[in-house]
Amino acid sequence: MSVYFFYGDEEYNIELELERMRSKLNQDFISMNFQQFDNPDYSTLINILRTPPMMFGNMLVIINAEEYFLSNKNFFNDAELEDIEDALKNNPEALDVVFVVKLPRDENKKLDSRRKLYKILSSYKAKEFPTFKTYKTADIASWIKNHAKSKDISLNNDAVELLIEHIGNNLREFNTELDKLKLIAYPQKVITKKMVEDICISNQDLFNFTELVMKGEKDKALLEFKKLLDKKHPLELLSAIQTMLRKWILLKINSSHSASELAKMTGMHEFVVKQTLSKLKNTRIADLVKLKENLFDVEYRIKSAEAADMISEVECAIIR
To answer: How confident is the model at residue 203 (pLDDT cuts 50, 70, 90)?
Structure first.
């Protein structure tokens, strides 16, 4: 069959491609014809590459290979690499092998193309999955429309524009919102701007809430939080606020950098970077960090089933 090499910092697109490949397997024997391994050592990897599949149709093997490339030293010696190269050239019939390297998002890391393993894998079906640049809204819009089509829905252009304005370039979040929009639109299949407005929280909404917390106006902040709960589950809301706080902390810590550098760090548009820095002028980093820690603690309590009342726990974290 084939050998594939998928790498990049857009983890969600990699997952979609792997799921597409997995869906083509015989689902009656999925436990036998689909396997995943995390950074297997030399002997395990060679065994994987040289073992023909059982008689249950084609087989797909995913090799999560981050350590092969991101470790400080070469994972395999030259003799082992020669054996791996030979095994790939003689890949068993009916076996697809995919080497996957997911790079940290927003860190602008690249694989070292000088490594012999990179050169070996690049000679097969190699594909990079980069994160969309926030300013390339046409590319993001095209992805949203295509992904919506896979869910048997379509979006008006103004609805797409509003989604991008709210979410930026987070494809996994787009997927979540499209699922919600599909339910809201049913039995219709066209998503309108009004539907997006009804379910999405804008950055301004989040800023208003956080600004009230920073000012110590806890009563107003709690009222704003209750309004946000009309659109989001508490855990979704916590995730959105913490993502925003992480970006704000990065902006404050690195405020001496240029707007273009800060845009790369945070995934925000340069205009939004400048606007946000202006709004955060009188906000202390310590206060942002404290709020983020409080919200992280309550998120952990909710996910570990320690919180008796999710909403009350979040409200307590806000006023602490």
So the answer is: low
Q: Are residues 143 and 50 in the same domain?
A: no
Burial class (CB in 10 A: 0-12, 13-18, 19+), 157: exposed
286 residue type, one letter: A
Integer Cα distance of 251 and 241 in angstroms: 15
Structure confidence by residue, pLDDT tens digits, 6-30? 999 999 999 999 999 999 988 888 8
Cis peptide before 52 (omega within 30 of 0): no
Same domain, 88 and 150: no
Assess whether 121 and 156 both reside in one domain.
no
Domain limits at 299? 203-319
φ and ψ at residue 225, rounded to 5 degrees: -60, -40
Joined tokens for residue 188 = 């219709």
Please tell me the distance from the alpha carbon of residue 179 to that of residue 157, in angstroms, as a whole number.
Answer: 18
Tell me how far apart the alpha carbons of residues 174 and 148 are, in angstroms, rounded to a whole number: 9
Q: What is the DSSP string of 224-269?
A: HHHHHTTTS-HHHHHHHHHHHHHHHHHHHHTTTS-HHHHHHHHT--
Give the integer Cα–Cα distance in Å for 166 and 145.
16
Place of tokens 């995390």: 38
